[in-house]
Structure of Metallo-dependent hydrolases protein:
Amino acid sequence: MAMAKNFLTILSATVIAFSAILLRSRLSTTSTGRWAEVFAADVVVVDATIYTSDPVLPFAEAMAIRNGRILRVGNYSDIKDLIGQVTCILNFEGKVVVPGFIDSHVHFLYGGLRMGHLELRGVKSQDKFIEKVKEAMRGKLPGEWVLGSGWNNDIWGGDLPIASWIDDVTPNNPVWLSRMDGHMGLANTLAMNIAGISKYTHDPIGGTISKTMDGEPTGLFADSAMKLLLDVIPEASVNDRRDALIKASKYALMRGVTMVVDVGRYFPGETVDHVWKDLSDVYRWADSAGKMLIRVCLFFPLQTWSSLAALIQENGRALSEWLYLGGVKAFFDGSLGSKSALFYEPYEDDPNNYGIQVTDFDWLLNMTLACDKSSLQVAIHAIGDKANDLVLDLYHSVASSNGIRDRRFRIEHAQHLVPATTARFGQQRVIASVQPDHLLDDAGSAEQKIGAIRAQTGSYLFQSLLSSGARIAFGSDWPIADINPLKSIKTALTRRLPNWKTAWISSERIALDDALNAYTISAAHAIFLDHEVGSLSPGKFADFVVFPSTSWEEFADDVPTTVFATYINGVQAYP
């Protein structure tokens, strides 16, 4: 009996081995004897100049992809055995390829919705401001809201707009026009009447209502005071928000962006419900309907942390390969342009104003402690030097209380720092989520607002942060600034405004590889997704961007302004 059993075992093993040999023989190609088609790549990239963002192999010339992920990266000889009869071969003829850009800070659906609003970016005078608003009235029915954004009073000399500028051209329509930074807005008199705003309306905590000497509201609302107006503006429909996602995604792909970190339609004064409605009505819909065009990592208002913790407990952080649950976000101060960023010293042109702390410190500390105990990632908006120091103090306190772990706390913006503060980012391993193109908006007016010394020694300290050992993750803050990584990279390299001959704080310029990494592997690290995206490495999603430059030297000497093609999962997504 035992001998029969052994014989059957040997016979079975022999049959299996012979079958494997036969299968390999049948599926191999006659010319080269390569492995079967089932082991071949779906797509192979050849003759490319590939920057991988992976220090193990920084540059390559070929890449093999199967099932949307990278199989192998290297020279052609390294991947040629993965080419099968149905493999698609992409010959880029030397063109530069980099990992898909990850925009670390956007308000994605808000940006998509704003694509249909009145655009005031670049308006250079009061007359032009009024003219643009008047033009927007055409075709509007009485009572219909007129929404716009993007104005920057620094461009026309600094005077803030007031309701009387536009009341005569908007007698029958309520108007709300957001400043470019999203921390201030202008309402006309009709909108204020609808909202019940009068001389007797008091400033809310964390916000200001601008008033005349007689106490009458001028129409300007800053930070949390904006809620008084925003609450009476009709909410965008579900279909409008879904259309906004598609429009925003196509626009991002055109710029080489394959993933965004969406911090939501949540600003000081906005309801926290928007972000959660967008998850259920828009993102879940798009994901289940196969309409997601780029990857999205979502952050939620800090005060809703328990809902996020429960959702992650139930589903994990990856809802799909397109949709991820990131963490929570809060605000500590306002913005430089609105003079609400919190500084140690007052504003040069407003000596009684130090900025606004929009959130109570103790409340924020307690909420962050609770989030951290639930392993949630926390991101806090801080722009002024005092705001950044206080948030770093808060993070240090949380880490000391809850013990050592990989937190990847983030500070969003980190624009103005006491020079010694940069070392704290590295020491505490706090990620600086920064937006280079905000530099273009601030450089011309920062000295007027905070003085030459503070502006020159503490503004946008990218190189100092890197030298301290900190991780920096680049983003746009779209639609506050344009979603345009190539422009942002050039800004970080040159720190030079259009028509400026010299760099603004030239010592803070950074190298090209640091800028690219800030938009790729460091951006992925900043959301705990560096195992999935951020570099062109085996096992990761095959998301990459192709540029017209045909050598690395050409690319480095003159960073291109346009994208040749964008690929997600190894499939061309743009054009």
